[in-house]
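Action item from last meeting closed. Structure (77 res):
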């Protein structure tokens, strides 16, 4: 679970497992797997870091690979 802030300063907790994509329009928009969109104050990088921290806490890190890394987790290029 990650804690985020809506544009009206309302804090809420989101289960990061339901996040399908994150975009900056320039506001950070999170699309959930059910199609619902949520706009938050946090920037895209901060949300991504929160998600990675959440995945580490629940033991999913070995299953996740960033797009700019190879299968061993090393930077490509």
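Sequence:
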């Amino acid at each position: 679970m990650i804690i985020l802030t809506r544009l009206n300063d309302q804090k809420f907790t989101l289960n990061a497992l339901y996040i399908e994509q994150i975009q900056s329009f320039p506001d950070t928009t999170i699309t959930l797997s059910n199609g619902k969109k949520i706009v938050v104050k946090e920037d895209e990088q901060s949300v991504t870091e929160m998600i990675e921290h959440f995945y580490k806490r629940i033991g999913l890190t070995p299953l996740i690979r960033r797009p700019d890394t190879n299968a061993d987790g090393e930077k490509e290029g």
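Note appended to the action item: Residues 20 and 35 are 9 Å apart (CA to CA).
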